[in-house]
Each structure stands twice: as structure tokens, then as C-alpha cells.
Design brief:
53% of the residues lie in helices and 12% in strands. With 195 residues, it is of the alpha/beta class. The structure holds adenosine monophosphate. The site of adenosine monophosphate has 16 residues, from α2 and α3.
Length: 195
């Protein structure tokens, strides 16, 4: 097990990876290890749908189609969440940003706080592994056309952000095709030097 205690406290991290890369699982484990909140916009939206809130009603059909909720709505959700007490000393964002506009909004939010990102983690998983995983865990809401749409949206809108974060020197690419524990270790090891 890599030693998370060797890393600085209060890291501000982003988690990237295609649908099925295990980023939700890794985000939860890493957040626990690093004592920062894992903030999953997908989970927040699913909760809103389950609660039947105004936000939930607005986003339900969009989510069910595999498309993205609009940037303005997401800006409001994330701005609000990052104001909460537990996000004042670091956070791990899972599923945000997903578009260029969202990356810009996040940069503005952090700028206002006088903060910078510590690192951006990219879980790299070959397509054939993604397909195998998707087939293995097929649930009622994992319809094939929705899975395909999520992958398409990821490649067209989200993957291009990796170049932006690479240019900023923040990108840490980790092979996400191994066991949960091995991937966690590799991520922690990749972050030596993050501040
Ligand atoms: P996830 O669990 O992260 O795959 O998110 C599930 C769904 O929620 C996505 O397919 C989108 O419809 C919506 N969603 C979550 N995060 C975002 C985001 N940052 N921007 C737009 N839509 C999002």
C-alpha cells in the first residue's frame, strides 16, 4: 500500500476517466485515504432525481439519455457544493469538469478562492476492458445505446480537457485496468510532489 500520509493535506484533485474506468470507486477510496471529500456530480444529480427536487426533474431525462446536463446548471451545482464547510480544506471532484466551459468555470471558482488544483488524475483504460466491464455489470439503466452515448460524449467533449490539464503540468496518467488496490497505489505514487 502506498503511503498516503507522505502526501500533503488539503489536496485539490480532479478525477478523469472514461465511463467504466472505475473512477467513482477510486474517487471514494482516495478521498478516504487523503481525508478530503469525494464530490461526484453524477451522485449529486442522481440524488436530486431520487428526491424529486426541481433540479432532479430538470435533469432526469437528460441523464437517462447519456447526454450532458448544461454548463450553467452544473456551474450552480458545483459552486454551491464547493462552498460547503467540508470542501474548504481540499476536495476530489469526480465527474466535473466535463466540458471546456466547465473547466473554465472551475478555474474561475478556484481563482476567486485564491486556490489552485494540486493534480488531475486520469485513469487510462483500454476500450476492450471498458466494454468487458460494461457487459459484466449491466444494470437496468445500463442500456447499450446509453453506454455508447456516454462513451461518445466522453470522447468528444471530455477527453479534450486532458490536453488542457497536461499543458498546465497537472496531469497524472495511471493505468486503470488493474485491481482496485493496485490502481489506488499507482495514483498515490503518481502524486508525489503534488501540493
Ligand atoms: P456520472 O455518474 O458521473 O457518469 O454522471 C451520470 C450523468 O449525470 C451523466 O451521464 C450526465 O448526464 C450527468 N452529469 C454528471 N456530471 C456532469 C457534468 N459535470 N456535466 C454534465 N452532466 C453531468
Amino acid at each position: 500500500m502506498a503511503d498516503a500520509s507522505a502526501l500533503p493535506r488539503g489536496l485539490r484533485l480532479l478525477m478523469f476517466g472514461p465511463p467504466g474506468s472505475g473512477k467513482g470507486t477510486q474517487a471514494a477510496v482516495l478521498a478516504e485515504e487523503l481525508a478530503i471529500p469525494a464530490i461526484s456530480t453524477g451522485d449529486m444529480l442522481r440524488r436530486a432525481v431520487a428526491e424529486g427536487s426541481q433540479l432532479g426533474e430538470r435533469v432526469e431525462s437528460i441523464m437517462n439519455s447519456g447526454a450532458l446536463v448544461d454548463d450553467e446548471t452544473m456551474a450552480e451545482v458545483v459552486r454551491h457544493r464547493l462552498q460547503e464547510e467540508d470542501a474548504q480544506r481540499g476536495f476530489l471532484l469526480d465527474g466535473y469538469p466535463r466540458t471546456e466551459g466547465q473547466a473554465q468555470t472551475l478555474a474561475e471558482i478556484l481563482d476567486d478562492r485564491g486556490e489552485q488544483l494540486s493534480a488531475v488524475i486520469f485513469l487510462d483504460v483500454p476500450n476492450e476492458v471498458l466494454v468487458q466491464r460494461a457487459l459484466a455489470r449491466q444494470r437496468a439503466d445500463d442500456k447499450e445505446e446509453v453506454i455508447r452515448e456516454r462513451l461518445r460524449v466522453y470522447h468528444s467533449q471530455t477527453a479534450p480537457l486532458l490536453g488542457y490539464y497536461r499543458d498546465l503540468g497537472l496531469l497524472r496518467t495511471v493505468d486503470g485496468s488493474h485491481s482496485i488496490e493496485a490502481v489506488t497505489d499507482a495514483v498515490l505514487a503518481s502524486m508525489t510532489g503534488a501540493a
